[in-house]
Amino acid sequence: MNSLLAKKIEEGDFIITAEYLAGTNIDSDPVNKSQISGVLAVNVADNPYGPIISGLASAVKLKQAGIEPVYQIVTRDRNRIALQSDILGAASLGIKNILCLSGYHQSLSEMPQSANVYDVDSIQLIDIVTRMNNEGVLLNGSKIGGKFSMLVGAVANPYVRPLELNIMRLAKKIRAGAKFIQTQGVFNTTDFHEWLNAAYQEGLTEKAAFIAGIYPLESYDEAISLLKKHTDFYIPESHIHSMKDAGGPAEQKKRGIAICVETINKIKEMKGLSGIHIISGGKEDIINEIISQAGL
Question: What is the CATH number for 60?
């Protein structure tokens, strides 16, 4: 693998990544490089809640701006033909990192009437890209012209229980070829530590870089909305009350950043952790502030 992210993982560096959430404004530029001066690579979201500028286009824009992209791709909207086609297209445009996800069900999107595909799941997609890497072939055996090389990543939710089944699924993703794991937003550090330690005890943290997701809450209303919409989100009541008691919008946003910093400081020395992923969700302007306050 010849991506910068792959190199830093190989060297054992502590990694900082972040997320870029494109909108629907086709005249807008991607995040400015000065906004993310402490970030190694930036994920581009793949229509998480409805149609936005394609992840592939956003990844190319970031690359042109001198920012290393991580191309996210979900299996919800594409069959195996379209998935392989998009991955080949990304490789032909110089994209070197890919994050494989199943994607939120369309009922959680702004277009719940959309048909889903799920021709393959995220583990099967990881296996497909790994085969493209190792054997230079597509699923039907067709040879890929040129040298195909992509660093493959996956997502994990530290809060899914029972823990044993969570670790079993995580191990499957790593066996399929995932070289880095980015988690969903970490708020409860105790349960996160239990999950990370279980992965460490199984030897999984030696086989892939584990990067903890950090989600900056902007307001009390956002926290409540996330809890209602996503059953896989876990935000402690203490955080909810803290956001509510912070005051007006500016104070709540500031408190959300403080919670992020507190979380990073609690987990960054945990055994088996390789980095932090800031799930900015369109709030790219606060990435540098979080990194600075957390001493990263």
Answer: 3.20.20.220
